Amino acid sequence: MSSYMPTLKQLQYLAALKEHGHFGKAADACFVTQSTLSAGIRELESLIGVTLVERTRRVVRFTALGDRIVEKAHRVLREAEELAGIAQAAGKPLCGELRMSVIPTIAPFLLPQLLPRLRADKPELKLYLREETSHAAVESLRHGHVDCVLLALPYATGEVDSEILFADRLFVAFPKDDPRDPPAHIDPDMIDEARLLLLEDGHCLKDHALSACNRPELRAEATMMGTSLHTLVQMVDNGLGLTMLPEMAITGGILENTDIVARPLHADNAQRQIALVWRRNSPREKEFRMMAEILRDAAKAPKRIRGAVAG
Q1: Which Gene Ontology cellular component annotation is one that this UniProt entry carries (predicted)?
Q2: 94, 92, 101, 97: which is closest to 120 by C-alpha?
Q3: Partners of 308 in beta bridges
Q4: Domain parsing of the chain, residue ranges
Q5: Contact 289/88 with Cβ under 8 angstroms?
Q6: CA nearest neighbour of 100 among 276, 238, 242, 236
Q7: Of 19, 42, 111, 140, which is least surrounded by CB within 10 A?
Q8: What is the CATH number of domain 8-87?
């Protein structure tokens, strides 16, 4: 058995390099200089006597053994995080640091209601937020970069525990005075696929909307070009088409100062489930369920659905 044991810092450097594929970006993620990160990985390679990373001027390539060790490193780092979590959970709940990823179709609309409440009710909590797509957020959770994720289901999250917070209905948004404007709601067969604007790939809201409509031709014909819901709203307001928005965006005021009308989508499963998820068997499960209850209460703020029919 080798007398040398890699340090957590060295494993963290190696995992960051694998994730980012670039020494400079990995160093930034670890809040160290590039030379410090590179030296740490070289020391690790020297002490265990194997090459983990092949370095060239343009490419960082992991060896087969390097890939295996990175997988083990992720597990070790997660275990270390959970060890610290056990100690923290034994004290006062929702104190100290909590790292949470939030997807972009939730963050701008729910966080303004959540953060003031947390500052008032849990002043000892230091909440660090990352806004990233569902795939990136789930990967951050899996690798231990964050403690929990606020996202929309259904989505393939792997082995996690979760708590559903509330249902978020889907609306169809289009320019005011559209002659096809119905009085109450919009059926999927009323949507013109040639005018439908959706978020680009990587945003789960696109899949939720298309799944609710259950029209395969929409997936093939819809224009997927928006980088954010705010971008889509600006395009619709300029007469470029129509889009689908979650109810929380509308109640959050995304249609204010626009000439856009929104009507509920009338279809089976015309909603997404907002959920908080965390790693299975986490010692901080009690804290996450407390956070879920706070999030649930924050979402109950007065609603203001402008230009929409609640039907």
Answers
A1: protein-DNA complex
A2: 94
A3: 262
A4: 8-87, 95-164+281-298, 167-271
A5: no
A6: 276
A7: 42
A8: 1.10.10.10
